[in-house]
Amino acid sequence: MADRQYLDLCKEILEKGTQKSDRTGVGTKSIFGYQMKFDLTKGFPLLTTKKVNFNLVWSELLWFIKGDTNIKFLLENKNNIWNEWAFKKWVESDEYNGPNMTDFGHKSLIDTDFNKQYKEQMSLFKERILNDEEFSDKYGNLGNVYGKQWRNFNGVDQLKNVVEQIKTNPNSRRLIVSSWNPAEVDTMALPPCHSLFQFYVNDRKLSCQLYQRSGDVFLGVPFNIASYSLLTILIAKECGLEVGEFVHTLGDAHIYNNHFDQVKEQMSRTPFPLPSLEIADFESIFDLKIEDVKVVDYESHPFIKAPIAV
User: Could you say which of 114, 178, 202, 218 has the lowest number of CB atoms within 10 Å?
Assistant: First the structure.
């Protein structure tokens, strides 16, 4: 079961992980090199031991598929998961003249007055992204992040090419999409954590393996499991294939020091059966719209909130 594999990873990190410092200053407990395998015929691996917002998973994946890199599309679909990186660019710019937002990710958690200011500034920022095209173009864009690399890696539409290769040459060992572009890493708001994925066709079943160089196990990895499983399901549907496995290989798999209590709470919960998907008929993944994909029969334990490290 998907939850059990994920909770085993959490247990492994808590029991055997090494304390490491990191760029955020929060610190992590970390292991290196870990793999999980999810049989996509057994249900859609949206974790049930805490609620995972499927709309956020799907709208972000569709954003990647479109090749978009501006948070405006995400905000239009009530998705706030990339806001902090765009907001950081804005408050560090010469044009920003509001309250000092230095280290907002940490200070908003420990200072009630600062948190109020932060929420006000973030609300104003989001409003301008949605309604001021010039501002949105300048401060809503995250640089050459995932969508850019999937659809225009130095002029190559990797995602479109790999879908065509699956249809015409399914035995290829080159069914690969890379988000890690050394020439453009410095132009990204956040270098790609899920850095490369490969498809594999066997017995008319499509499988996918993701290599993730860095995994925030509590906040990020549940989204990654669902996102790449969904991508595999959608591409299999377009290519007339059944689904196989999603294989998730992690490099630095870590739990932030301020997530330990939340992880332990999740580990104490009993999983529910996995949900399924309802997908409208479509010809190409590039034509999909938000309303075309829905999760059904999703029963889960409540959300568990935790701070994001920026």
Answer: 202
**Per residue in 25-40, pLDDT tens?**
889 999 999 999 999 9
Q: Which of 123, 142, 161 is the endpoint of a domain?
A: 142
Is residue 94 marked as binding? Answer: no
Q: What is the pTM of this model?
A: 0.96
| 213 is known to lie in a ligand binding site | yes
> Of 217, 213, 222, 219, which Cα lies nearest the Cα of 255?
217
d(CA 93, CA 106) in angstroms, rounded, equals 19
At 280, which amino acid appears? A
Catalytic residue chosen out of the listed positions 10, 193, 208, 239: 193
Structure tokens at 109: 């958690």
Please, what's the largest Cα pairwise distance for the chain?
60
Same-domain pairing of 176 and 280: yes
Is 259 inside any structural domain? yes
